[in-house]
Amino acid sequence: MAGETVLALRGISKRFGAVQALTGIELEVRAGEVVALVGDNGAGKSTLVKTIAGVNQPDEGVIEWEGRPVSIHRPQDAQHLGIATVYQDLALCDNLDVVGNLFLGREIKQFGLVLDEVAMEKRSRQLLDTLSIRIPSVRIPIASLSGGQRQVVAIARALIGSPKVVILDEPTAALGVEQTAQVLDLVERLRDQRLGVILISHNMADVMAVADTVAVLRLGRNNGVFDKHSTNQEQIISAITGATDNAVTRRQARGEGGER
């Protein structure tokens, strides 16, 4: 069962010049919950993720962390709070091994000078074992791994700082069936470890397989939040395409405010 709300967005809006990218977005993520963020191209998913991650700053609205308002002006602010983001491009270094990628920029040093390779290798093995990630060796170059293995290494790297919320941007894109299953298994293990997970995906099969809650964005606005266990894929797709707009979205589109 999901626990207390860790991250909450209240009325988040973002404009880029004449383009209104987000309008009054509401979202909550609880400990031990997978929230799938879905929507068509241009719905605002990437903008919202970058706002949470500190890449963009909202023009309006409040971000709450563990019940208190916070300001996230840069990615370091998000990381210090406990928000980790794994982008679709993974940003892995093919010429480094698994250990080198996991600790890139966060190397463990002896006396502040010399890299402690033994400590980093031990920590890498412990982390991968905890997540049940199967890698031939922590010293194998990233270039030698499959797409699915690279994805789980990127997710593992995000966990080095012990975050409370992990954002996964299209983690199964371009993966085969077996590799996709490996990544989805890892998402479920993150939930079992009481992390909040935001999953951005176009693949409805993946969403229905692991999500607890599905939040739909359409044209930069909320268009429904669904409990996966009490809805079906057709209802979610209807919200994505606009076949059914929720009442809040219709009022916002007309410029009206408040309940009637």
Describe this structure in words.
- With 260 residues, this protein is an alpha/beta fold.
- The protein has a domain at 5-91 and 163-253: P-loop containing nucleotide triphosphate hydrolases (Rossmann fold).
- It contains nine helices and twelve strands.
- The strands form three sheets. Strands 6-9-10-3-11-12 form a six-stranded mixed beta sheet, sandwiched between helices. Strands 2-1-4-5 form a four-stranded antiparallel beta sheet, with helices on one face.
- α5 runs parallel beside α6.
- The chain starts with a strand and ends in a 7-residue tail after the last helix.
- Mean pLDDT is 90; it is low at 247-260.
Q: What key attributes describe this structure?
A:
260 residues; alpha/beta; Rossmann fold; six-stranded mixed beta sheet; four-stranded antiparallel beta sheet; 12 strands; globular; disordered C terminus
Q: In percent terms, what proportion of residues is strand?
A: 25-35%
* CATH homologous superfamily classification of the domain at 5-91 and 163-253: P-loop containing nucleotide triphosphate hydrolases
End-to-end span in angstroms? 34 Å
Largest sheet: 6 strands, mixed
Any idea what the radius of gyration is?
19 Å
Number of strands: 12
Q: Which stretches are low in confidence, meaning pLDDT under 50 for 5 or more residues running?
A: 247-260
Query: Average pLDDT, to the nearest integer?
Result: 90
CATH 2nd-level architecture of the domain at 5-91 and 163-253 = 3-Layer(aba) Sandwich
Principal-axis shape equals globular
